[in-house]
Structures are given as C-alpha cells and as structure tokens.
C-alpha cells in the first residue's frame, strides 16, 4: 500500500480530518461521461488553471446534478430510472438526475447530444447558432433540461449510456463529489467542439496515449483510462461486463508521510 503522496497543505488537512478536528464537507451528486470514438479514443478537456477544483487536470465531460435533472417530465428512451438505480445503488429520483446530468453535461461541455426525435434516432448535428444559444442557456441554468428537450421534441437516449464506475472524492478534500461514471459512443454525424467555459483545451487520445505522462490526471480519470486501455475497440468496451463498486480514496499515514490510497 504505497499510495499517492499528498502535498503539505492537503496532508495537514488530512490529519485534521482524521483526528476529528475538521469535519468532511458533503459530497455533491455528479455524473461524468467517457465519450468514445473508434480507435478507441476518448474525449478529454483540460480544466482552466483558475478553477477551484482539479485546476489544470484533463477530465471527461461531467458535472453536478441540477435539481431540475430529476424532473419526471423528461422524455425518455432506454433503461428506466429504476433500472439505473439498481445499477448505481441509488433511488429512482437520483438515478433519473444522474442520467439527465450525464446527457446535459456532455452537451454543455462537448456539443454532443445523446438525444433524438424518437427512441431509435439521434440528432445529426448540433453546431448551429440556435443550438449554441440553447447550450449556453443550459449552462447558466436559465433553461431546464426537460424544457430544452420538450421544446425541440427530443427524447433522451438513456440506452446510449453504459454504467462504468462510481467514485467519491476523498473526505480530506474541500470540494467533494459523489460521481457516477458512464461511457457513450460519439453519435454518427455529430462532432465535438471546443466549447470553452470551464475548459481551455480539448483533445481526443487513445487511453494509452492519455496515460503517457503528458497530461495531469486525477486518480479516477487515471484509473478509468487504465481500464479502457485493455480494450481494442469501442465494441469491446460496450460489451465489457461491469459491476459497479463504490470507490472513495482515503488518506493514511505511512512512515510519517500522508498518502492517498484507493484500497
């Protein structure tokens, strides 16, 4: 059990949390989507250096669940919220919010929309000015996701998502997320865009290339890329059996040094 050494400031906070002098902050429910294309390659965004959480890190699209993501009015195709809840060990309301957040955040951060006019179709192109206007309205929360889909006559394609993992930010962090990871394939005809916002760079890389040391990666991202690097194709990823286990790294003191371990 070697773990990841913690910087001095975080090590001091870890000791405070472990001793009970500081109480952990609650973890916010969130969803992340590993967007794949043939290769396989994954879509990564670099978070701006000014961000309060994971500044400078390369991450997958994702973010916190908005309370409106749990709206039962969302037009839906594919596995039901109850079925997703069984997979992620969540109640039906939260499961609906996680799936909606996954699709909404992917659109907000990449321009890719996992929705279509019907249960067997997907939007072909989302690059027009009207789509951009809606994307920005979703980001500033002036537009709810259910209203966005309803206005365009679209159905959320929950069947295009595959559950992959469940990570909770360590208790020693000042900002924490309870994040379910999904994987999805870039729909035919759609393309990602460098949409800005919280990111200042986007790239497509094979999982192996993303692990070569060029990018700063948080432990969940690194672990997910390591898992994906074992597969030769997108089809292999989608066919892979997954049993979702909750992983929350924890701080331990090893020979006087605070380290972060996952097991």
UniProtKB/TrEMBL annotation:
Domain Nudix hydrolase span(s) in chain numbering: 26-231
Entry cofactors: Mn(2+); Mg(2+)
Record keywords, A-Z: Hydrolase, Magnesium, Manganese, Metal-binding
Superkingdom of origin organism: Bacteria
Name of the protein in question: Nudix hydrolase domain-containing protein
Organism: Nonomuraea monospora
């Amino acid at each position: 059990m070697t773990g990841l050494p913690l910087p001095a400031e975080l090590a001091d906070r870890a000791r405070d949390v472990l001793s009970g002098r500081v109480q952990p902050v609650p973890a916010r429910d969130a969803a992340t989507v590993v967007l794949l294309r043939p290769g396989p390659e994954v879509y990564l965004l670099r978070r701006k250096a000014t961000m309060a959480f994971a500044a400078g890190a390369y991450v997958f699209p994702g973010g916190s669940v908005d309370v409106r993501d749990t709206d039962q009015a969302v037009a839906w195709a594919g596995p039901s919220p109850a079925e997703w809840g069984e997979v992620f060990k969540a109640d039906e309301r939260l499961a609906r919010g996680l799936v909606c957040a996954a699709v909404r955040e992917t659109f907000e951060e990449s321009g890719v929309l996992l929705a279509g006019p019907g249960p067997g179709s997907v939007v072909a192109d989302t690059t027009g000015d009207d789509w951009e206007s809606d994307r920005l309205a979703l980001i500033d929360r002036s537009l709810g996701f259910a209203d966005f889909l309803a206005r365009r006559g679209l159905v959320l394609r929950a069947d295009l998502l595959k559950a992959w993992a469940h990570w909770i930010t360590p208790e020693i962090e000042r900002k924490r997320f309870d994040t379910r990871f999904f994987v999805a394939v870039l729909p035919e005809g759609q393309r990602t865009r460098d949409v800005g916002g919280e990111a200042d760079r986007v790239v497509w890389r094979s999982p192996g290339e993303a692990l070569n040391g060029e990018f700063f990666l948080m432990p969940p991202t690194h672990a997910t890329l390591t898992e994906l690097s074992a597969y030769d194709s997108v089809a292999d990823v989608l066919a892979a059996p997954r049993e979702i286990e909750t992983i929350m790294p924890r701080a331990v003191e090893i020979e006087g040094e605070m380290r972060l371990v996952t097991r």
